[in-house]
Amino acid sequence: MLENTSGKTLDTHQKALSVNLDNRRYGTFAEIGAGQEVVRWFFRVGGAAGTIAKSMSAYDMQVSDAIYGRAARYVCRERLQAMLDQEHALNIERLTEARGETSTFFAFADTVAARGYRGGSDCHGWMGIKFQAHPRDEDSQIILHVRMLDNEMALQQEALGIVGVNLVYGAFAYHHEPEMLVDSLLDGLSTSRIEIDMIEFSGIAFRRVDNRLMSLKLVELGLSGAAMFAANGEVLQPSEFLYRKPILVERGSFRPVCNVNVDMLRSANEKFSELPEVKGKNVAQIMEITMRNLKAEGEIDRRDFLARADVMAACGMNVLISDYFEYYRLAAYLARYTKEKIAITMGAASLVQLFDEKYYTQLDGGILESFGRLFKNDLKIYCYPLKNRETDELTTCENLEIKPELKQLYGYLMERGGISDLDNYNPDCLAIFSRDVLRKIGECDPSWEKMVPESVAEVIKKRKFFDYQCEDDPCRLPR
């Protein structure tokens, strides 16, 4: 039995042995790229004959293609899924008649690019397990993407083996508690050695799991600095989604998404797409929420997070959750995945904060170092104007209040085109603020519905987000 009732964290040896001694588990290990690092643990600890039906490594690309079919890349999600599907189907076909009543079959697979003999490769991999939680059960699956951070190939292989054992053990011991499973993935390791930037649960055992919450959990635990998901809730792996694309990011609370948020992204995208380096290319547009924003009231409110995610989804937007409060860290993260142009759009008030030196005291070079990092890859910032409610005066790049000692720096960034005004905004959006929308929702003032996209208003009313309680109020004002 795999149940750990001691309350103590098992080490890698104990986890592998627990799986081997559980006579219900029987399956295949298929590993490509970094050797058979995971299955080696199960052979090493003893008792593997009761667990391992087959172990294989189709290391040669032609052999791999012959078994699993051709793929655009060998270290990619497509190849991993082909491996899982093929090996699990073979286990069920070959073994069900003999032991299907008592065994739960599984297939573990990974496809990995570890540090090569000559160095310099992107050290990452895809890993997953497809399994039955109970005999003759429908299939369940967990897949994840890892980045290996050790500088030596041997250490990367060691770390990969440990993560794999944690995944196999977790699938069997914690499939009913997926958050605990995520929490256990780096047992015996640290975030300085392995980063997990994508995880996806699917199948019968995880039918109630919301993968957006699991993405949030990765960042909350520090397993990754960021995680992404699409408007349909599908988990995205950044290196695949952002690969060779220009990127445009809007940071906000999106509580809820208002017309001004949509207009800010639209107007920035229009300007960004006109740049010679971007024209004609598919721009990846992203709405980003930082962990600092999600924790503004203390602990993360998961219902509030899902409400924000759903209103962004209603706008068809891809979502990035990041622990990169400093913009230079966000820029460095995005630059990992593309050599194309990167742009950030923000309001004038946020641009003022960008020049506040208190945010850069941890850097030896202070604000100069932060801006050197931020703009080193020719990043572009687009500034959306701020309207003064009392005077109707607009704050733009031209009249932004910057400390005297930083005005030359600001002027330099303006002159070289690093910071630009957005003059193609919709004037009707300038008076819209999310705090006013939330207040009007609480007061049952239906005028808030005109301040957000129609699709967002429908979602808020239907699902009672942001304490909406006014749908049947007889005192509602006419629109």
Automatic annotation (TrEMBL):
Keyword Nucleotidyltransferase attributed: yes
Protein keywords: Nucleotidyltransferase, Transferase
GO molecular function: nucleotidyltransferase activity
Family annotation (SUPFAM superfamilies): Nucleotidylyl transferase (SSF52374)
Protein name: Nicotinate-nucleotide adenylyltransferase
